[in-house]
Amino acid sequence: MNLDFSTLAGAQDFLWQGFKYSLTLTVSSMVFGIFFGTLLAMARMSSIKPLSLAAAGYVNLFRSVPLVLVIFWFYILVPLLTGVDVGAERSAFLTFAIFEAAYYCEIIRAGIQSIPRGQIAAGQAMGFSYGQNMRYVILPQAFRNVVPLLLTQTIVLFQDTSLVYVVGATDLLGAADKVAHRDNTLVEMYMLVALIYFSISFALSQAVKRLHARIAIVR
Amino acid sequence: MIQINNVSKWYGEFQVLTDCTTEVKKGEVVVVCGPSGSGKSTLIKTVNALEPFQKGEILVEGVSVGDPKTNLPKLRSRVGMVFQHFELFPHLSITDNLIIAQMKVLGRGRDEAMDKGLKLLDRVGLKAHAHKFPGQLSGGQQQRVAIARALAMDPIVMLFDEPTSALDPEMVNEVLDVMVELAQEGMTMMCVTHEMGFARKVASRVIFMDRGQIVEDCSKDDFFGHLDARSERARQFLSKILQH
Ligand SMILES: Nc1ncnc2c1ncn2[C@@H]1O[C@H](COP(=O)(O)OP(=O)(O)O)[C@@H](O)[C@H]1O
Ligand SMILES: [Mg+2]
């Protein structure tokens, strides 16, 4: 088999744009996903039944349907509902944020549930309101306990962002795919992309492992 | 200061508290003792509404704890509580443990809160540890910080739930010393403890609980001085814990 990477130089900028989009999508979905996931987790554990049921329904729905399907739905639904054609790239931001929140929610919920009851009581006894107790006592400890899990989920998320190519968005894979078809370098491009995803994901997961070990010592 | 009137509480079918009535007057030190599982923790936690109750009434300086309209965070901020397992916030330094509620609940400025916190830390003999984290301190030290943290809120009453029972024996006294000092300064206290030496020294009254009921509620002198007048259950309990 002859591999031809000579077209790579010309495609560099285009691939770089795609890569930047993949990263932006990952980071924004992580930030929003953790924020909304935290609210969802609090709602799920609320003693207000309708609230906890609604949150549980949301989480179970998104954890039970394939991501690709949700990407399609949002791609079709968002323009239909809003009347604005936001385009594949921007619709993906919404899709991932909403989808990932369901996964982050469960991680954060586990984190909150790992906090001993005595800590919650101590916060209450100091006179903290529910919100203050969450903010100053429970969530900081809960997050600390699940940082490795949150990061691992983010690595999965980074890989999953490649699915947006199905609606024609130009992420790293999408960009590579377009270059590959233009230059007829399918094997080369897919190898390159695989290498990039692997290097980043593997390096991050090693870092998470080391972090995990360090947290374990501190505790 | 605290009035507990005919309080009953159930966990499902199981009745934890049965018709408990007592009071803690200003400046009094009331010691609560009784066998494990008799409801001591539950009773003391109803006072600052950490445990809800189904029947009866509790008043803290005239404010009804069970009333749904009562501002519980505000009430709790005036009632200091010390737990069996210290419950310092492990992610915060000792200093932050001492000032966070002062700032966020009482609205004090950082300087004022710090000033107060460090003074109290000094008072419990731990000023040198201000920058450390709870995990770096011994159990006895953590418990003393926990007492300082509660005192920083200028509580009108202090509740203690077996503050020394999770400690290694050699650390019990450093915590009891702080408590004795507090009592002698006139702090109103309700203490669940089996430290009868402490009770002898500073208690105004002793309450003995068994199976969710207040079986004895009398002055310290009556409790220790006229054992023959005490109930069978109280005598048995006392003879058990006074042996060692
Ligand atoms: N959340 C709970 N659910 C059911 N039973 C409980 C709960 N908490 C405490 N109990 C029971 O209530 C009784 C009194 O407990 P507690 O107040 O902790 O006793 P003490 O402090 O005197 O040892 C015990 O029999 C205990 O098993
Ligand atoms: Mg107890």
UniProtKB/TrEMBL annotation, chain A:
Residues 19-208 form the ABC transmembrane type-1 domain. GO terms for cellular component: ATP-binding cassette (ABC) transporter complex. InterPro entries: AA_ABC_transptr_permease_3TM, ArtM/GltK/GlnP/TcyL/YhdX-like, MetI-like, MetI-like_sf. It is found in: Cell inner membrane; Cell membrane. Its main location: membrane. It is a multi-pass membrane protein. Keywords: Amino-acid transport, Cell membrane, Membrane, Transmembrane, Transmembrane helix, Transport. One of its GO terms (biological process) is amino acid transport. Gene3D superfamilies: MetI-like. Pfam families: BPD_transp_1. One of its GO terms (molecular function) is transmembrane transporter activity. The chain crosses the membrane at residues 20-43, 55-76, 189-208. Signal peptide: none annotated. PROSITE patterns: ABC_TM1. Belongs to the binding-protein-dependent transport system permease family. HisMQ subfamily. Part of the ABC transporter complex GltIJKL involved in glutamate and aspartate uptake. Probably responsible for the translocation of the substrate across the membrane. The complex is composed of two ATP-binding proteins (GltL), two transmembrane proteins (GltJ and GltK) and a solute-binding protein (GltI). This is Glutamate/aspartate import permease protein GltK. It comes from Rivihabitans pingtungensis.
Automatic annotation (TrEMBL), chain B:
It is a peripheral membrane protein. One of its GO terms (cellular component) is plasma membrane. Keywords: Amino-acid transport, ATP-binding, Cell membrane, Membrane, Nucleotide-binding, Transport. Residues 2-236 form the ABC transporter domain. Its main location: membrane. InterPro entries: AAA+_ATPase, ABC_ATPase_HisP-typ, ABC_transporter-like_ATP-bd, ABC_transporter-like_CS, MetN_ABC_transporter-like, P-loop_NTPase. Gene3D superfamilies: P-loop containing nucleotide triphosphate hydrolases. It is found in: Cell membrane. PROSITE patterns: ABC_TRANSPORTER_1, ABC_TRANSPORTER_2. Belongs to the ABC transporter superfamily. This is L-glutamate ABC transporter ATP-binding protein /L-aspartate ABC transporter ATP-binding protein.
